[in-house]
Design brief:
This protein has about 160 residues and is mainly α. It has a single domain, classed as Transferase(Phosphotransferase), domain 1. Helix content is about 40%, strand content about 5%. It has seven helices and two strands, in the order E-E-H-H-H-H-H-H-H. The chain has a two-stranded antiparallel ribbon with strand order 1-2. A hairpin with a 4-residue loop joins strand 1 and strand 2. Helix 2 packs antiparallel against helix 6. The chain is globular.
Length: about 160
């Protein structure tokens, strides 16, 4: 697991058409059942599991980060989730994926937000992806791009 996928950690060789991930300083080999540090990744690309202090995460965390980067590219909104701190970051995520999906994810792992945090997150419906399309980005948004993006963000799919 790289645990710090973000634009600054990607190098692209356009001539050779190669993409490389760099800065492996936070990387760990994945071992099922092992608990990992949650103080990894850059805030705007952190998966919800890090924001709720779930230490039993896996490599799908990097897929979330990739989805954040991809959304920033196709919707021309960088960063896609712009939280002012970790709590606000989770609120921004809940406003896009919806609190039902976030709660389903939490329930799957017998996790619960404390009442103060639950009040902070609030209640939100899943935002239709079409709401992010504007005059600057329709040429970047295709059904395949949306399908890929959803697969990166779907917390139930990511954690099998």
């Amino acid at each position: 697991m790289l645990r710090d996928v973000k634009p600054h950690n990607i190098m692209i060789d356009h001539e050779l058409r190669k993409l490389r991930l760099i800065d492996w300083g936070l990387a760990e080999f994945y071992h099922p059942g092992k608990e990992y540090n949650v103080r990894v990744a850059s805030r705007y690309f952190k998966g919800p599991e890090l924001l709720i202090d779930l230490q039993d995460y896996d490599y799908s965390l990097d897929m979330w980060s990739l989805g954040c980067m991809f959304a920033g590219m196709i919707f021309r909104k960088e960063p896609f989730f712009y939280g002012h701190d970790n709590n606000d970051q989770l609120v921004k995520i809940a406003k896009v994926v919806g609190t039902d999906e976030l709660n389903a994810y939490l329930n799957k792992y017998q996790l619960e937000l404390d009442s103060q945090f639950n009040a902070l997150v609030g209640r939100h419906s899943r935002k239709p992806w079409s709401k992010f399309i504007n005059a600057d980005n329709p040429h970047l948004v295709s059904p395949e791009a949306i399908d890929f993006w959803i697969s990166c963000f779907d917390m139930i799919i990511r954690r099998g």
